[in-house]
Amino acid sequence: MRIGFIGLGIMGRPMAKNLLRAGYSLVVYDKTAPVSDVLSLGAEGAASNREVASRCDIIITMLPNSPDVYEAVLGVDGIAFGARDGSILVDMSSIAPAVSRAISGELQTRGVAMLDAPVSGGQPKAVDGTLAIMVGGDPAVFESVRPILEKMGSSVTLIGPVGSGNTAKLANQIIVALNIAAISEAFVLSTRAGLDPEVVFTAIKDGLAGSTVMNVKVPSILDGNFEPGFRIQLHIKDLVNAVDTAHDLGVPVPLTDHVLETLRELEREGLGAADHSAIIRYYEELAHTEVRRRHP
Ligand code: NAD
Q1: Number of domains present in the structure of the chain
Q2: Mean pLDDT, residues 153-165 taken together
Q3: By CB atoms within 10 Å of each CB, which of 9, 116, 184, 288 scores lowest?
Q4: How many of the other CB atoms lie within 10 Å of CB of 85?
Q5: What's the CA-to-centroid distance between 31 and ligand 1, angstroms?
Q6: Is 277 in the pocket of ligand 1 (CB under 6 A)?
Q7: The pTM is what?
Q8: Is 292 part of a structural domain of the chain?
Q9: Residue 274 is part of which domain span?
Q10: Are residues 189 and 136 both part of a single domain?
Q11: Which residues are part of the catalytic machinery?
Q12: What atom of ligand 1 comes closest to residue 234's alpha carbon?
């Protein structure tokens, strides 16, 4: 079985490599990023999204946002025009649930099934093949691709119909953003009070306040390392999708609105390409206090 993999960025590249290591045959394409390292591991290249779809039964996409997925599927030389009756599209990008449903509807008329299967865990877990994968779509289609997803993730969960994966991912992104904001306020406060932030981290990380976010983000904050990781621009995209979805549902999300404004301010300051842990830079500037390691 040949799998198409489209979008070889921070996440897609290591995910594609894990499929190659698991023995799958891959046809890959990226609009701009070089793919030579993936080809050297045995993948075949293609010249367009359409060509990938015409050479594979299962096509995986890992692209930034809704318009990118829409273009890759339904734009010029898109997947929809190369796919066959019975092909399956697994879109692993984090996009608006309403757009997943709309694209799936278009594909259905061509006999192509679609799952939305966004991921959580970031680049380290993409490399390890231990992502959390949240899936929306038909249960039989899900079962047919589950073994492939299990090569990229350690947790693979079918949540409901198409769009459900991305709705769960929005919930995930709200929790991650608010968690980083809470960590930021708390560590700026305790550092300004004269405490060593590294010692505070050691003291609290295994208690109730501890979290995966804290364990991953605080060490890099202490090092002053804001290399992405997960770019602020992408988190803005997720929270805009979350706020739009919440408005459609009539659900108030005041905390999400607040962190979204913080992220936008950081983007205006030129930090759009920094890791989302740079949320702490906003709080550091307000308090004129940097949370860094005292004994590097
Ligand atoms: P990225 O920008 O590094 O990679 C996206 C790739 O898609 C780029 O190489 C780009 O050239 C390619 N691309 C864009 N449009 C295309 C098109 N029409 N046809 C072919 N290729 C196209 O992004 P990323 O960090 O890998 O994130 C991908 C998705 O995964 C996003 O939705 C993001 O929110 C989500 N995500 C990212 C992380 C993370 O930590 N980076 C974690 C979880 C989920």
Answers
A1: 2
A2: 98
A3: 288
A4: 7
A5: 11
A6: no
A7: 0.94
A8: no
A9: 167-287
A10: no
A11: 169
A12: 34
